[in-house]
Amino acid sequence: MAKKHFSPSSLNMLFRCGEQYRRSYMEGEKIPPGVAAVKGRAVHGAAEVNFEQKVESHRDISKSQAQEAAAAAYESALNDGVTFSTSDRATGEGKVLAEAKDRAIVMTDAHMDTQAPEYQPVLVEQRVRLELPQLEHDLVGIVDMVDSKNRVVDLKTSKRKKNQHEADHSIQLTAYAAMTRQLTGKSPEELRLDVLVDKKSGVERQVVRTYRGDPAYDALAARIQVAEKMVQAGLFAPVDPGHWCCHPSWCGYWDSCPYVDSERKGKAGV
């Protein structure tokens, strides 16, 4: 039997809301992503198509090719399912999806104009397993991209800018750094959140730089050990009810969560 594993995203979920982790990873209750995530997947799909061929070609594909790749990734994401919020349903699901696809194309253009030309990728969408012999779980993840300057780049789409604290303390970026060190034999020179911020006034690019060293890897290993103990003990603490993610717009389990009281559900219109 294959050894169990955590991923950076599952660790994030476990430490953010244990109940969400329990239902998703232990019970297998998978909730389709929201429209924003589908839009992001489309942009990411176009970037992946471009960067994979650029490893050998050293040149970017055309904007029209990138748009086609984004549209294909968008349709693929829709086929996997999408969750609509209350506001989405009020606006009209068809209208929301059409607008999201249009914005995905606009953001793809921004990616090709501002992000893609800066990078010469050497590794793209690389799946890595960090073996942890002393534990029942390994750590498995997919590194978005490592470029010729030994920079790990995590491409993001967002409605709001990221902050330095988020980058400096990201479990995901720490894991990517450790995985890159295993692949290349050395730690990355730099870690980046390269973000396309989708504003009403247009798409703005934001680059947040950070670094990792041995202390960060040690802290990640300690965190994985604690995560394993939590899973073994069956202790899945719910998130603080005041946390931003404990809301129907951000959690697909919200309306059926035993830790959300009926008064809150009534106020949210659920």
The domain count comes to 2
* Low-pLDDT runs: none
Distance between the termini: 42 Å
Percent strand: 15-25%
Shape, principal axes of CA atoms? globular
Rounded mean pLDDT is 93
The largest β sheet comes out as: 6 strands, mixed
Radius of gyration: 19 Å
Structural class: alpha/beta
**How helical, in percent, are the residues?**
40-55%
- What is the chain-wise order of helices and strands? EHHHHHHEEEHHEEHH
Count of helical regions: 10
Number of strands: 6
Write structural notes for this entry.
The protein is 49% helix and 19% strand. It is an alpha/beta fold. The chain has 2 domains: 1-26 and 121-253, no CATH class; 32-118, no CATH class. Strands 1, 2, 3, 4, 5 and 6 form a 6-stranded mixed beta sheet that branches. Strand 2 and strand 3 form a beta hairpin. The longest helix is centred in the N-terminal third of the chain and has 23 residues, at 35-57. The radius of gyration is 19 Å and the shape is globular. The model has no long low-confidence stretch (mean pLDDT 93).
Can you tag this structure with a few keywords?
about 270 residues; alpha/beta; six-stranded mixed sheet; 10 helices; about 20% strand
Short description:
The chain is of the alpha/beta class.
List the helices and strands and how they pair.
Blueprint: E1 4-6, H1 8-16, H2 18-26, H3 35-57, H4 63-79, H5 86-91, H6 93-115, E2 121-130, E3 137-147, E4 151-158, H7 164-168, H8 171-184, E5 190-199, E6 202-210, H9 214-233, H10 262-267
Parallel strand pairs: 1-3, 4-5
Antiparallel strand pairs: 2-3, 3-4, 5-6
